[in-house]
Write a structure and sequence with these properties.
mainly alpha, 11 helices, 67% helix
């Protein structure tokens, strides 16, 4: 691709617009993927047990069309323009006036902003699109885990393999670094999980966290695993304390770790290895 054309196609403004559109789709993924998986689990369990159950509504990422959960109003295309439609509708359904969560434009703006930062970080090259894909999956995983405390293999495992394949093709970091990053990412949280369980008899985190950190290690490398864990722990502690003080954290509930792993991975990716290691005094 001509350098001048690439400079326009992969520029921060263009990727920001792309991110707004992808963010709109990620809202669908965050909302529907857990429901799709739950439906599949119910049907599989019923088949194994040989019992009949009322079949849940069939749902995919594309069907049925988006509609208001309160009145069933189908969302028209002009009501689904990222950010602008929410502002035009003043955050309410056009039919029943039920409030539309501000999280929808937040996810769109977040994804658009992150895509622009990726363009700034990696320059106007096709590699920036690769990292935009990395960003999109992390945003989806963070949203799903925050809502359900579940990190689906449907996203964590493809992210892990994509990191290893991208490394093998020479698009990111050396393959050895990616492999050992994945190994260290998985085993570090796996070890913490078992130590905590042996000491307390309780589970401190889910297996999805191991797989997510393994995926981050495959993309960012061995040396970035510990900084990601440290940053995620700090972010989680600050948010958890804030929710506790604001009485938003109910007793017996915990704050999922996945969103903070994803956020830490994004921070480390955007900062770059040399800068992160310099902050820690490891250079």
């Amino acid at each position: 691709m001509d350098a001048q054309i690439a400079g326009v196609v992969f520029s921060p403004p263009v990727l920001a617009l792309l991110g707004l559109c992808i963010g709109s789709f990620l809202n669908v993924v965050i909302h529907r993927l857990p429901r799709m998986l739950e439906r599949g689990w119910k049907l599989e369990s019923a088949e194994l047990l040989g019992v009949k159950v009322d079949e849940p509504e069939a749902i995919t990422l594309s069907t049925p069309r988006s509609r208001c959960p309160s009145c069933g109003h189908q969302i028209a295309w002009y009501e689904n323009i990222p950010v602008l439609s929410w502002l035009w509708l003043r955050g309410r359904c056009s039919a029943c006036k039920t409030r539309i969560s501000a999280r929808y434009p937040f996810v769109e703006l977040l994804t658009g902003g992150l895509f622009a930062l990726v363009a700034w970080r990696f320059g106007p090259t096709p590699t920036a699109l690769l990292w935009c894909g990395f960003v999109a999956v992390l945003v989806a995983l963070a949203g799903i885990d925050w809502d359900t405390t579940f990190l689906p293999d449907n996203l964590t495992l493809p992210l892990l393999w994509a990191g290893l394949v991208a490394s093998a093709l020479g698009w990111t970091i050396p393959l050895g670094n990616a492999v050992w990053g994945a190994v260290a990412g998985y085993l570090s949280l796996w070890s913490v999980y078992w130590l905590f369980k042996l000491a307390t008899g309780k589970e401190g985190m889910g297996f999805g966290d191991f797989k997510l950190l393994a995926a981050l290690g495959a993309w960012l490398g061995l040396k970035m695993v510990l900084p990601v864990v440290l940053a995620a722990s700090m972010l989680g502690a600050v948010v958890g304390i804030g929710m506790k003080l604001a009485a938003n954290l109910r007793e017996g509930r915990y704050v999922p770790f996945g969103p903070f792993l994803a956020g830490a991975g994004l921070l480390v990716m955007l900062a770059g290895q040399n800068r992160v290691l310099g902050w820690l005094g490891w250079i």
